[in-house]
Amino acid sequence: MSKFITEHAPAITLWASALCTFAVYSILYKENKFYRFFEHVFLGLATGYSFYLTWSLVMKPRWWDVMVGKGVWAWAFAAVFGSMFYFMYSKKHAWISKLIFGLFMGLSAGGIFREFYEIYFPQLGATMRPLATNEVIAEGPWATTVYVAGVLLFYVILFSVISYFFFSFEQKGKMIKASSSLGRTFLMIGFGAIFGATVMGRMTLFIGRFNFLVNNWAPQVAADWHWFKYVLPILVIAAVAGIILALKKKPVETEEPPTE
Amino acid sequence: MNLKKLQNIDKRILYILLAIVIVTPLFVRPSKHPDAVFDEVQNAFNTIDNMPDDKVAFVSIVWGPGTIAENRPQTEVLMRHLFMKHKKFVVLSWDMPGTKLSYDVGKALEEELGMEYGKDWCHLGYRPAYVAMISRAMGEDFQKQFAEDYNNKPLKEMPLPAKIKSAKDIGIVIDITPSATMGTWLAYFCGPYNVPIVTCPTAVMSAEAYPYLDSGQVSGMLNGVIGASMYETLIGRGNTRTEAAATAWSLSCAHIYIILLIVLGNIGYIAAGKKAKR
To answer: Which domain holds residue A3?
Structure first.
């Protein structure tokens, strides 16, 4: 058995990946046991694989081998500190976990100071833009006009968005109300752009899997099984016919869980 | 025709059509790349192209299988450019599964372009503790923190990584990432040591990077796979059938399809409104 697996490892990997992909995307049609089974398989495998990777890439070379192999026994304290996290599950000894959590919160808070200085200070400086520079003026009146319009638009967006976040006093005046409303519109445009990019990102995940099926799995299948090209059209026709028949029926609505 | 029905098209039909729209360019694999190149992509190209030859580029890999469709084409095109220009580079992965994926990309290009591992490039493997590694190890004592490479070979035995001592030897950081890791590089390495950074986020994260591009903190950006396909145009592969081009085409077709659906949905909505008024 193990010899068979070793000899056919690439083919098994390829087929397992393709089968998992088909199983996971079958949820787009409707809820089914095929999907559920592979969902659990995937979760189990992912957990096992990350456990293996954590041990082989981190724990063993950076902790166990250093401690046991090279005799640096001070690393034993890392296990003590690390295990302190698990006391959060004990009501009586939860205070022990708070010590280590506190340590990490302190580290993070310290880091934020530096991050704020290095990341946001240069941005504050870059916000103070001149309406035009000598280089831009030298490029001609049209370039200057476009540049100035861009900078003015930048300032309009900047101040209107800032005014939207004035929460310290009630926004009563007409001017501040209009500015705040404009700021909210600009924010919505910004969120729309981010949402559009998110859709694009989700689509690429989908494309990634199809890329695998088209460029890795399909060529392998075509090379191994010459007869498959004759069967494939039949399968496609059968699938299309099955989908058309299924669409004629009303899709089964999944029952929503009761709200508490 | 009852336009009202456009609001209630069966989602399974929409998914099948979406699958067809996405798969077709992947099968056809068009060689056409985008003609227009974004400024941020052009700036990324210029920054890498102008890196001094005596310095080493540091390629930071944060991606894994989840974002392979976007980040692998970025990695491939950037490594190709570095190889073509004989710029030396080291790769470090902060993602466990991404370690092998990025190593495979480098190895495939090394064989294709006749490069030499250890001399032209080197993979440092996986390292945990992202912030600590960047803030402490990278700038001060490179050799102490990175003793071995991906294959557990000592760095001292290879000419390229052996010469990297500190931040002074690094000419550029290329951060290929699906998450917001750019801030860490800016705060702990690129800002304090004045090293330029080119970021290559997924499309989702690219919107967040624009303020840093405007302020000049980030030198250039490859925004998702579209950025990668534009970069291929810049390195002279504008008429080659590549994964980036095929993926970019798929993505563009999917966008057009979604826009079409939005329009159809709105037509259905307006039609339903008119009917209700009557």
So the answer is: 1-71
Same domain, A149 and A216: yes
**Cβ contacts from A onto B, under 8 A:** 128
Token digits for A239? 């699938």
Whether residue A214 is found in the same domain as residue A140: yes
Q: What residues in A contact B245, CB-CB < 8 Å?
A: none
Q: CA torsion sign, B123 to A212 to B230 to A186?
A: negative
Q: Is the ipTM of this complex over 0.90?
A: no
- Residue percentage of chain B with pLDDT more than 90: 39
What do you get for the CA distance between the two ends of chain A, in Å? 51
Q: Are residue A55 and residue A134 in the same domain, yes or no?
A: no
A88/A82 Cα distance (integer angstroms): 12
- B123-168, pLDDT tens digit by residue? 998 887 777 777 666 767 788 778 888 888 888 888 888 888 888 8
Distance of CA B161 to the CA centre of its chain: 23
**Which residues in A lie closer than 8 A to residue B71 (C-beta atoms)?**
none
Spell out the domains of chain B, with CATH numbers in brackets. 36-248 (3.40.50)
Q: How many domains does chain A have?
A: 2
